[in-house]
Amino acid sequence: MIIISVGDRYDALIGEHLLQEIGERCRTIGFSGRCAVISDTNVAALSGDRVKQSLTASSFQPTLITIPAGEKSKTLKQAGAICDQMIAAGLDRQSFVIGLGGGVIGDISGFVAAIYHRGIPHVQIPTTLLAMVDSSIGGKTGVNTAPGKNLIGAVHHPSLVIDDVDVLKTLPRREFNQGFAEIIKHAVIADAEMFAALKEKKARSPRRPLALQSLIRRNIEIKSKIVAKDERDRTGERAILNFGHTVGHGIERAGDYQEFLHGEAVSLGIVAACAISIKRAGLPSDQRDAIVDLLRRFDLPTKLSRDFPREKIIGALKFDKKFEAGKIRFVVTPRIGSAHLSSNVTLEDIREAVASL
Ligand SMILES: NC(=O)c1ccc[n+]([C@@H]2O[C@H](COP(=O)([O-])OP(=O)(O)OC[C@H]3O[C@@H](n4cnc5c(N)ncnc54)[C@H](O)[C@@H]3O)[C@@H](O)[C@H]2O)c1
Ligand SMILES: [Zn+2]
To answer: What is the distance in A from the centroid of ligand 2 to the CA of 242?
Structure first.
């Protein structure tokens, strides 16, 4: 098992057979009493019982709360319904919340933990690769609203993150691959060495537990290091994690959150951000080609279909948090392994990049 101390704040444990230890692990960090295990219909069916049993065996009183799987569940209404169930189950200020699922569950359960009794502890048990390498780290929690994604939320760091790579065995291939969009993003913005390693053939069949564990570790380290520099997203340092996400979020929304998974939309957003980086940051075109090639190797989309409503992507940008006071905060990469915020990217640049997708 690998233990990483994330920003000296909480531990992330990475290993096999960790779900059955969850009760013990929660005891070790001083928790007791009641807890809510928030999960979705898919993950609860696969792992809900195991987690509940482990908690009960360590004398916790868990209540399993299940919501429908998928992005459409990440709403304020659903968060309210979860809170109601927690009140009915007698959870109080001493209780805690466990999020058992992908990024949707991590975000909504973390948000519920942030607001319930003005904040109770949160344990993240991410069950998708994307959630392990990205969303479970950094403390950003929240829900979507009709105009845009993640517009309502709170920064609420978890008390513990448990990455049991066994759970990834049941993850559908498409879901597994989308995690690589965030991994490739991390490589492009901060780790040229990881970028080179991902090009090796063996990196593409990383269902092997040990390879996966070290890949997850490296990504947690990259993300937590960036987050530590700018926790509340104020100075622009954390913003580089949004590489590929301005256009990516627009694509997710234009496809009504149905057509593309988050990571797939981010893959397309990365391609657009590379085109803009060539123009505005001097990214050499052969490096852009290498990035596009790597995305393709993980079966991630790098081109939009001809009839995709591109104008909807631009329309969706207005609701993006990256438009602050009418100015675009766009992340560019001058070379693989480095990224920064640019203030000279125009809406026209984005339009052009989207047109060429
Ligand atoms: N907070 C952050 O910093 C942050 C960062 C990146 C992404 N996100 C958010 O994460 C979300 C996307 O996360 P996601 O891709 O994990 O989506 P998800 O939570 O919807 O999970 C994807 C699908 O896989 C299923 N699933 C999950 N684990 C499984 C397993 N082990 N076996 C079989 N099926 C399983 C789920 O039921 C779901 O159908 C988005 O809402 C995005 O905004 C947040
Ligand atoms: Zn993302």
So the answer is: 7
Pocket lining: 130 vs ligand 1, CB cutoff 6 Å: yes
Q: Which atom of ligand 1 is least distant from the CA of 141?
A: 1
**Structure-token match 């209780």, residue found:** 95
Q: What are phi and psi of 59, to 5 degrees?
A: 70, 20
Residue 57 to residue 150: CA distance in whole angstroms = 36
The amino acid at residue 155 is V
**Residue 28 burial (CB count, 10 A):** 12
**Distance from chain centroid for Cα 37:** 19
Write out 184-195 in H/E/C secondary structure.
HHHHHHHCHHHH
Residue 280 to residue 349: CA distance in whole angstroms: 9
- Would you write out the chain's pLDDT as a tens digit for each of its 357 residues? 899 999 888 999 999 999 999 999 999 999 999 999 999 999 999 999 999 999 999 999 999 999 999 988 999 999 999 999 999 999 999 999 999 999 999 999 999 999 999 999 999 999 999 999 999 999 999 999 887 778 899 999 999 999 999 999 999 999 999 999 999 999 999 999 999 999 886 665 656 767 899 999 999 999 999 999 888 888 888 999 999 999 999 999 899 888 999 999 999 999 999 999 999 999 999 999 999 999 999 999 999 999 999 999 998 887 665 666 556 889 999 999 999 999 889 989 999 999 999
Ligand 1, residues 130, 136, 143: which to mutate, most atoms within 8 A of Cβ? 130
Q: What is the pTM of this model?
A: 0.94
Question: Are β-strands 327-328 and 330-335 bridged in parallel, bridged antiparallel, or unpaired?
Answer: unpaired
* Closest ligand 1 atom, residue 140 Cα: 1
144 within 8 A of 98, measured Cβ to Cβ: no
Q: How far is the CA of 344 from the centre of ligand 1 (A)?
A: 33
